[in-house]
Task: structure prediction
Amino acid sequence: YISPLSAHLCPPYGCGVVAAMPWLLAVAAAICLLVAAALVIAVKVLRVVCRTTAASAEVSRAVEGKETIGFFHPYAHAGGGGERVLWCAIHAIQQQHPGVHCIVYTGDVDVDKAHFLDLANQRFGVKIQPASVHF
Result:
């Protein structure tokens, strides 16, 4: 037999949990705040590191203060139809907007600039001016 008074004071999951709840909530809130603060600090540090690294890159120095268009083409050296579109777009930009620089972000990191431009010329007949193209 459970009296109505004891049922009201001690719920079915036990009196100890109820007494510890404010303390557990405070600990959980403190942990959440610490994790949030650590994430904010990590993001700020990462931003500084990325900006410093990007500012010191050769491409960043080459295009600093100039109008620039970026192309993301993971396999710009593959020689397929998508590459023809890339090189034709860069050629058109060079013809219509001579002061604009183009940067190609590619996963082909082992291929040098001259080889990319030779591929565009030999395979697709597109002559690219090397001074305003960066990889």
The mean pLDDT is 84.
